[in-house]
Amino acid sequence: xxxxxxxxxxxFGAAIAHAxxxxxxxxxxxxxxxxxxxxxxxxxxxxxxxxxFLSLPLLVTALWRxxxxxxxxxxxxxxxxxxxxxxxxxxxxxxxxxxxxxxxxGRAAAVEAFGLAGHDLGWMPISLSPAGTWLALLGLVPPxxxxxxxxxxxxxxxxxxxxxxxxxxxxxxxxGLLQLAQGPSSALRFFAFTNVADPVGFFANRNHFAALxxxxxxFAVAWALDAAGRIQQSRKARxxxxxxxxLLIAAATVLTVLICVQLMTRSRAGLGLTVFAIAxxxxxxxxxxxxxxxxxxxxxxxxxxxxxxxxxxxxxxHGIIARFAADPxxxxxxxxxxxxxxxxxxxxxxxxxxxxxxxxxxGVEQPADLIANVFVNHAHNDLLEFWLEGGxxxxxxxxxxxxxxxxxxxxxxxxxxxxxxxxxxxxxxxxAILLLLLLAAHSVVDYPLRTSAVMSVMAMACAFLVEAPExxxxxxxxxxxxxxxxxxxxxxxxxxxxxxRPAAAAAGPVMPRPPNIVWPDSTEEARPRQRxxxxxxxxxxxx
Length: 543
Description:
This protein has helices at about 1-5, 10-15, 25-35, 45-65, 75-90, 100, 110-115, 130-140, 140-150, 155-180, 205-235, 245-265, 270-285, 295-325, 335-345, 355-365, 380-410, 425-440, 450-465, 470-480, 505, 525, and strands at about 485, 490. It is mainly α and about 550 residues long. It has one domain. Helix 13 runs antiparallel to helix 14 and helix 18 crosses helix 19. The longest helix has about 30 residues, at about 205-235. It holds the Pfam family Wzy_C.
């Protein structure tokens, strides 16, 4: 094992050497399952149910390990924010007496419907759609498991997880190419209602697939930057190595494929945000001057964009022009936003309940706003939909998250603040900031965060902005998970060092050292000295 890890690149060998406890593999597999099964646009799909069930082992294990992890101020703050997010739908499911429930804003129509039906009002929750609120609450299980799992990973393991994410995004992009090659009737399209003329990967909607692609672009640029730095360091040290070159080729290949498939999705939001993703990720070069002058942002961006454009020019440009030539008002987003705002004002301050958008919107939609053959399942603006469903509490949570993100932006992008153990750790944290900003901007015109897959990517990015646990704490958690083996194949009790307690405290009081004795400080001096050879005994005659 040791020789194999020594031959690996330093950045991979360190992560694999610290992942023997199995928790990293559990977190990685769960994250991959989120990207593969979480592409549905609404709750209730079979794939979502299976994903929530498969996420439980990671969630339970992470909660159990989190109890023994020291709570820093940074970690405690983000855990309180996550707890508040979970508390909102639970609060909306608490039954209220009829007198209180009927007095809530926006309940007059429901009270009148009960009266016309001849039913008495019983104890009712705040949510106008309790089933939808339960589905929304269960939908938080996969991203919560990914967030807590990533939160407990060390910096080397987080680097490896980011590579797992890039590999999954690359595989999803290749799947999208196969879908496009096989046409609208491709068996590789896993949802009945989907964009049959465009690549969608594991998603049902091309816009959400586009969110995965530009997320991968940001992380691929971060790794390309790290590869350039490794090549530059090897040149200065005059020790040629292939590690940086392999990383650079792999990152450039992934980056080219992701941009190429992004052009083929013909998603207007995805294309626009990809441009900002490339421009923002290029700022990582200026945040890390050790990348080397030979690989500048302009050279990398120009080469990748030219390669992607040359590969996809015959397929996508006429479709892109047609997409941007269409009137954006015709798709009804402005109508959805106006109706959502009116409903949100009518149901302040408590909202209508998380997951209740469809029945609430159908009850307030005006005939003049109807669009033929169009079913409105979301507001196409997550901020407005959060406001409608959660009211004042939802707006407060969004404001708290925005404040936390602004604080992290000032911290991570501060050149005088060292983040992580290696330069790549700081680059990945800055890339996570850019990714969260892009998802927030995308949420203004669409609903990418309503899918478990994109929400899990957001959860991973948020966890990257929290300091990783110390190596000693993570090692204690791993050692506690498995018994200690004896040489004869049995098990034995752990030493105090393995349990995180000082050996002297477990063995009893320590006797003080005798005075006037110089104790050796190094291992060289601590070695036992060789006894001098004795001279042979003298022959004496005692007779």
